[in-house]
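Have a close read of the entry that follows and walk me through the local backbone shapes. See right below:
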Amino acid sequence: MAEETAKSKPIRFGILGCAEIARKLSRAIGLAPNAVLVAVGSRSLDKARRFIADNGLSAADVSAAGSYESVLDDPGVDAVYVPLPTSLHVRWAVAAAQRGKHLLLEKPTALCAADLDLILDACRSRGVQFMDSTMWMHHPRTAKMRELLSDSARFGQTKTIGSNFSFAADSEFLQNDIRVKPDLDALGALGDMGWYCIRSILWAADYELPKKAIALHGAVKNEAGVILSCGSSLLWEDGKVATFHCSFLSHLNMELSVVGTGGSLQLSDFVIPFEEEKAPFSFASGSAFTELVTGWQPLPSKHIVTTSLPQEALMVEELSRLVASIRDSAGKPDDKWPTISRKTQLVLDAVKASLDQGCVPVDIVE
């Protein structure tokens, strides 16, 4: 009975910082069946208390802390979600790992792969689970799309991948948001939105790293040199090609297209589904023009994948499952998630280097 009780205990989460995205994650933790929020830390105790009140949390169940250290030092916290500015990730993610806290880290994970390696090394040395907060990876639609891309008879060999993520930021965002400040999130749109594009491309390529990145001309930066809009091509040795564009300056768009020798897959909401309870995509296989070139035959099939939990809650549920395995069964951290994060960061680094060097080709070395 004691063993059964231990295995049913939810994973207890703390949150470091009261960023806007933390509101979404506090809800996700509440929805996940195997997780519970127990602490919120801020540099201001009043701010932590306001976060708890404003998000409908119980002050009796969720403690407010006036420092991040207080959350990390709390023995009642198993895992922490870190939505702090990217420039603070190394300091606080490493501190969390050193205190034995499992880690859900907001993207981009770091300013460069060398910084991410410091975080991952700390996680490995303490045997804690690492996962970045790329939520769409955990939606059941993602698994369904993978099934189709893996069907060599219907899809064939991947040839081209295209990804776009943009939204039209207002003047307040462009002047004051942390994502346009060089001392807070120096990667700008490339880190915030390009991360998703790069991850989607790697996902479509089954995580095979491209060999080269070539940034596209026409990137836009603010007066402080932070990227507001940019794009890149990625090249593989076998001839695969991918392109992506990310921007704070264009209308909301989340397109992903994957084209193979025998089929193609498209969706228009890959980062955040149009609707929380269901997510669409289309898949075509063996399509050709009709006799008079007036249409397609066969038409792409339309798919809608439903979910009982939003993708961010499924992400929390998956991390909690991995943490519980370590806690209850002496399991080891799953290296899948840190490996994927590091590959994403390596490609991001190469795109940034290409931009900084005048859009020259930059090798991607694992």
Confidence is low (pLDDT under 50) at residues 1-6. The longest strand covers residues 249-260. The CA atoms of residues 288 and 294 lie 11 Å apart.
